[in-house]
Design a protein that fits this description.
alpha+beta, 4-stranded mixed beta sheet, two-stranded antiparallel sheet, 8 helices, globular
Length: 194
């Protein structure tokens, strides 16, 4: 899908695939046509934060045991409490009604990728073992800005199983400097020595 942005005079090609991609693309096109890209992005970020904070919401989103009606009622109540309405609110209700809540996190990532392409931004998906301090995040951003020559936005995810280090993914490029991967490499090399 070509994403024309007349304000910036640029065209970017970004593709998101699968069920999540179709939902993300539809939501992005609705938001773009309504001039509400930033508002929808903010609501999606708020919903993502709610998922991160609540084990019950994670279970609701990811578990197939809940009926469509249960998911719809729970999502409607959550959206009212969180003050998420408009396009994003209707989107979440539609996703729940269609029993696709399990894809909502992938949909949000796809939407964010489409927005980044639309705005001419580069997003680096960073996975770390522990939350980054502001100073470390700023240093990492500066290094990635210099490496890519563009303004890089960081999307940070914490995964304690990495033990230490980090993984950085920009587009299809992945740099894995995690302690877990290094230990697995050493373990594999030791098996070959025997």
């Amino acid at each position: 899908m070509a994403l024309d942005n007349p304000e910036r005079g640029t065209v970017a090609e970004t593709y998101v695939s699968g069920v999540a991609g179709r939902y993300a693309t539809a939501l992005f096109e609705l938001a773009r046509d309504a001039g509400a890209v930033d508002a929808v992005k903010a609501d999606l970020a708020r919903f993502t934060a709610l998922i991160a904070e609540s084990d019950d919401l994670k279970r609701l989103v990811r578990s197939p045991v809940f009926t469509s009606e249960e998911q719809e009622r729970a999502i409607a109540a959550l959206l009212d409490k969180a003050g998420i309405g408009g396009l994003a609110g209707n989107f979440f209700k539609t996703v729940a009604a269609n029993r696709r809540l399990f894809t909502v996190e992938a949909i949000i990532r796809g939407f964010d990728a489409l927005v980044a392409a639309y705005k001419g931004e580069v997003v680096a998906e960073v996975t770390v073992a522990q939350p980054l301090s502001e100073a470390h995040a700023a240093t990492l951003k500066e290094a990635l800005d210099a490496l890519t020559g563009k303004d890089v936005k960081l999307a940070v995810e914490v995964d304690p199983s990495l033990l230490g280090g980090l993984k950085v993914k920009i587009g299809s490029k992945l740099v894995d400097a995690s302690l877990k991967t290094k230990l697995n490499s050493i373990r594999h090399a030791m098996k070959e020595v025997r």
